[in-house]
Amino acid sequence: MSPVRIALYQAQSGIDPAANAEWLAGAVREAAAGGAAMLFTPEMSGMLDRDRERALTKAKREDDDQVLAAVRAAAADVGIWVHLGSLALLGEGGKLVNRGFVIDDVGAVRARYDKIHLFDVDLPTGESWRESAMYEAGREAVIVPDTPVGKLGLTICYDLRFPELFQRLSEAGADLIAVPAAFTVPTGRAHWQVLMRARAIEAELFVVAAAQAGHHEDGRDTYGHSLVVDPWGEVIVEMGGEPGLAFAEIDLSRIAEVRARIPVHRHRRPIPPVAN
């Protein structure tokens, strides 16, 4: 199997969905022009806004979302797959959903994933986040067969800290797991790369993490440093702290090579109860 060329869009999304849609469509076209078979974009690609009331006035249901429509049209126009990391969409009960999409090269939605783990934390810097106040949690793990990068497992940002989700996706046959993100700067500096490498090593597959970067209109700062990590934990690509596009080659034969070295998948056993 020949290596597959992918692209990562490191964004600095703002509070205006129309502007973000334009930038995303441009990234889709640039990725295709660069020879990528698939583009990966960050969490909250369509609108990054921590103001709950303002976000609710701009959020749409999936069928009416202009960002999703723009990316689907651009993907079909240039013939490229897109993992649209996530959008803030209207859900049920007055809350939003944080939903990612896999879009094929004719613009069809092949899969959806709603973020399962919500970021409710108080950081030592004084930053406080309560995603559960604004978003509904997802309830299903999702794997997408037959993408240009093989079987694609879907996660979003804070899911990274829950290795059992990655294990479940690996056991379901994933070749690559996407981790679109909008990491804070303090947690990014401390944990971003080490956690991405750990998940890739544990699951013995590729991890692709397209990230938000820089200072945003809603006042937050995000870490950036979008990553591609191979099954041995080697960093293939790491971007810096500014928006932009990067490319990487994914060689799926690397998975079998790594699993032959350390056959974790064959050695895994049910964990017995903890003895008291």
Q: Could you explain how this protein is built, in words?
A:
- This protein has 276 residues and is an alpha/beta fold.
- The protein has one domain (4-263): Carbon-nitrogen hydrolase (Nitrilase/N-carbamoyl-D-aminoacid amidohydrolase, 4-Layer Sandwich).
- 28% of the residues lie in helices and 29% in strands.
- It has seven helices and 17 strands.
- Strands 1, 2, 3, 4, 5, 8 and 17 form a seven-stranded mixed beta sheet that branches. Strands 9-10-11-12-15-16 form a six-stranded mixed beta sheet, with helices on one face.
- α1 runs parallel beside α3.
- The mean pLDDT is 93.
Provide tags for this entry:
single chain, 276 residues, alpha/beta, Nitrilase/N-carbamoyl-D-aminoacid amidohydrolase, 7-stranded mixed beta sheet, 6-stranded mixed beta sheet, 7 helices, 17 strands, 28% helix, 29% strand, globular
